[in-house]
Structure formats: C-alpha cells, structure tokens
C-alpha cells in the first residue's frame, strides 16, 4: 500500500506521556507496516495554552524512541492563510456564518441556525450543521451514529479571539498533506463527525479512521497532560517501547525488552496487528506510568 500516508499530530501543551506514545507508536507502525509515509504535525493553534519548550521536547522524544518521520515537520501556526481560504469558501457556500452568541446566552445548549449578523468583528465563525442522522465507520470501533441536530449542532471553526479551531485546521491539513489513514485515540472519535462534515462541505477526501483505546490511571482517568500524566523519559526507551507494544496487545517476545530501539521497531513493524485492539476503548496504563 505505497499510497498510505499517516500522521501524528501532538499539541505542544506539555511533554509526551505514555498515552501519547501509544498513539504515536500505533500510527507509526500502521504506516510502516503498510510501507507508507508517516508525518509529524505540530498543532500549535492555541498560544495561551502552549509550553514554549514542548515542541523541542516532543520531537526529541520521538527521535529517541526511534519514531522518525518523513519530510519536514508541519506547524499549524504557519498555515493561517490556508485556514482563512477554507473559511471563506465555507462562508461563500453558506456553510459558515458569524456568531456573537456567548456561552451564557447558549446556557449549555447546542447552537442551531444562522444568527443575526454581528455589527462588529467581535464574533466567532460557526459551521452550519445540517440536520438528519449520520453513521460513520471506524477501523477498530463499532459504527458511531449521530443525530446531528441533537448531538452536534453548529460548531465553532474560528474562535472569537481569532484563533483557529482544531476541527477546521485538522481537515485542511489532512487534505493538504494527502493523509489517507488516521490512527489516534478513541478520545477523539467524536471529532470525526465534525471533521467529516467539513470534509464533505469542502469536497475533500475522507481518511480511513481507526481509534485505538486510551490508557487510564487506576482511578479511571485518561492519561493526559491536563491530568498531569507523567512525562516520558529518554532513559530506558527500549523497555518503555516494549511495554507500549505489550499494552497494544502485540505480544513482543521477552528477549526484545533489552534490544535496541531500532531492532524492537523492526520486529514490531513486521508483526503489527492492529486488529488486536478491535472494540477496546480503554486499558489501565502500566503501573510505572500511573500517578496514583
């Protein structure tokens, strides 16, 4: 499958943790197993939340763990013109509209329908969500079905503070980079329907999605930067990779635990079986990577 193009797209809000490694490793192995390309994109769209040291830390850890990417790293902060062009097209088609509604006004309810046009620039832009039901397929999870009016509504694609939303930017970048397959955590599965709607509106190709389970703490919380997950260490990379492969149900032989990162990834690429994760939504992280 030489036309396979996958990607890993972390946000630079902190260092990578074991959960991040699982997503990076699964997407990397799926791409390499299919003799495809694997790209890295830094989703630096939200400066107030970003750690100025995180990007270098992320790229360094990926390199240490042998997860070498193809081509240049793409930075979303440098691609505003592409997002603006997509917004203008959606606006001209009637698929996007300005919205000055506040969270207080919405009172936790979904937004439905075009607002009165704001008289100033103090507004967000929303995607005008169609009505009806939609069912999306996934490479690992059951079909996920949505009633668009009841569960999605009109969602923000450019924020009131002029920052671009993840939903619009990821669609534009996946298309621009010719991404064919997206392997990521199931915590992002509900983003798929929003991205699908934008892809359809812009007449863009839809990648094949596979959502892997997430690693959780002993209390059931997802390992995440927000939950202060323990950062990955550059030390003992082979052992950590072995534990990640075991968590991904790839059954790596015990003797590989002390092998080099390169040898371990060579074995993992050859023996990769994404089907081992079918239907799984979460698994406890190994004890060394849990806070509690």
What does it look like?
It is a single chain. The chain has 292 residues and is α/β, with parallel strands linked by helices. Helices cover 32% and strands 16% of the residues. A three-stranded parallel beta sheet has the order 1-2-3, covered by helices on one side. Strands 4-5-8 form a three-stranded antiparallel beta sheet. The protein has a two-stranded antiparallel sheet with strand order 6-7. Helix 1 packs across helix 8 (237-247). The longest helix is centred in the N-terminal third of the chain and has 16 residues, at 18-33. The mean pLDDT is 95.
Secondary structure elements and their pairing?
Elements lengths: L4 E4 L9 H16 L3 E6 L11 H11 L9 E2 L4 H14 L2 E4 L3 H4 L17 E4 L5 E4 L7 E4 H5 L2 E4 L7 H11 L4 E5 L5 H11 L6 E5 L1 E3 L20 H11 L13 H11 L10 E3 L8
Parallel strand pairs: 1-2, 2-3, 9-10, 11-12
Antiparallel strand pairs: 4-5, 5-8, 6-7
List the defining traits of the structure above:
about 290 residues, alpha/beta, 3-stranded parallel beta sheet, 3-stranded antiparallel beta sheet, 9 helices, about 15% strand
Summary of the model, kept short:
With 292 residues, the protein is of the alpha/beta class.
Largest sheet: 3 strands, parallel
Order of helices and strands: EHEHEHEHEEEHEHEHEEHHE
DSSP strand tally:
12
Strand content: 15-25%
- State the shape: elongated
What proportion of the residues is helical, as a percent range? 25-40%
């Amino acid at each position: 499958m030489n036309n396979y193009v996958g990607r890993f797209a972390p946000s630079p809000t902190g260092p990578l943790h074991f959960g991040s490694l699982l997503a990076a490793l699964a997407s990397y192995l799926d791409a390499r197993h299919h003799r495809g390309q694997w790209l890295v994109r830094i989703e630096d769209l939200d400066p107030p939340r970003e750690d100025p040291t995180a990007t270098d830390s992320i790229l360094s850890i990926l390199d240490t763990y042998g997860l070498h990417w193809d081509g240049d790293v793409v930075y979303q902060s440098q691609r505003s013109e592409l997002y603006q062009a997509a917004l203008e097209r959606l606006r001209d088609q009637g698929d996007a509209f300005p919205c000055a509604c506040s969270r207080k006004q919405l009172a936790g309810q979904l937004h439905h329908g075009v607002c009165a046009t704001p008289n100033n620039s103090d507004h967000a832009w929303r995607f005008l969500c169609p009505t009806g039901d939609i069912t999306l397929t996934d490479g690992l999870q059951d079909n996920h079905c949505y009633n668009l009016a009841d569960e999605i509504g009109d969602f923000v694609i450019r924020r009131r503070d002029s920052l671009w939303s993840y939903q619009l930017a990821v669609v534009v970048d996946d298309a621009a980079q010719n991404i064919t397959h997206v392997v990521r955590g199931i915590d992002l599965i509900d983003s798929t329907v929003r991205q699908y709607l934008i892809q359809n509106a812009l007449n863009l190709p839809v990648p094949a999605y596979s959502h892997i389970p997430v690693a959780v703490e002993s209390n059931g919380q997802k390992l995440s930067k927000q939950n202060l997950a323990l950062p990955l260490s550059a030390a003992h990379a082979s052992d950590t990779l072995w534990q990640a492969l075991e968590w991904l149900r790839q059954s790596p032989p015990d003797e590989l635990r002390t092998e080099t990162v390169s040898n371990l990834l060579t074995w993992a690429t050859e023996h990769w079986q994404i089907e081992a994760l079918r239907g799984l939504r979460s698994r406890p992280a190994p004890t060394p990577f849990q806070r509690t």
